[in-house]
Amino acid sequence: MARVVTLLNLRTWARQLSDTENDDSITDAELTALANRHYPEVYDLLIEAGPPEFFSSSTTVSVTTGTIAYALQADFRALLGVYVHESTDERRPLMPMPEGSRGQYKAPTQSVTVTLEYLPAAGTLSANGDTVDGVSGWEELIVARMSRDVMVKLEKDPSIVMATIAGLENRIKNRSKNRDRGQPRRITDLDEAYVTAPWGWTGGSKLGCYRLRAGNIEFYEPLWRYP
Fold it and tell me: Is residue 22 included in any domain, yes or no?
């Protein structure tokens, strides 16, 4: 990660920006609450600007015979990719279950390992040393939003800070999307067999697709397949 700052940094900078360094009415607990309010907002902006893989995590799921549903990670926010292990060094992507086709699939009949690549949710800041990754100075937007709220509470004019917030939001939108220039301008067509044909897989594992449902990820095999 590129630029890590602590919760203590965020609180200190927010006090400086709002000119409340010596104001006892603004407590550390209040600033911590503001940091936890605005950190997820800025995190979402960074993910939207892309590439989301910059923030991704991965985990493995041990799929067992007869079991469809497996609990997602506690910090799960959004799914990026699902890959079944065909061998020690081969991964096959799994696609979502086509809509309305549950009747074409059954529970797994073998034990396999699946890797999930996902976006974690923004963490909660509590200790002074807890950190956020500002990537390229974008933690300043968290600080600016914290300072705005403090100034509004104290009935100060937040217009200068509001201008700073607008400038930082535009900077994120205009620059962060260019961090990965190697991707195609348009989405490439997926192999139709992965999406629509439950009999199209002939690899070592029999898993055909997955489905997100009720806080779980579910894995299915097709009712029929080529040998």
Answer: yes
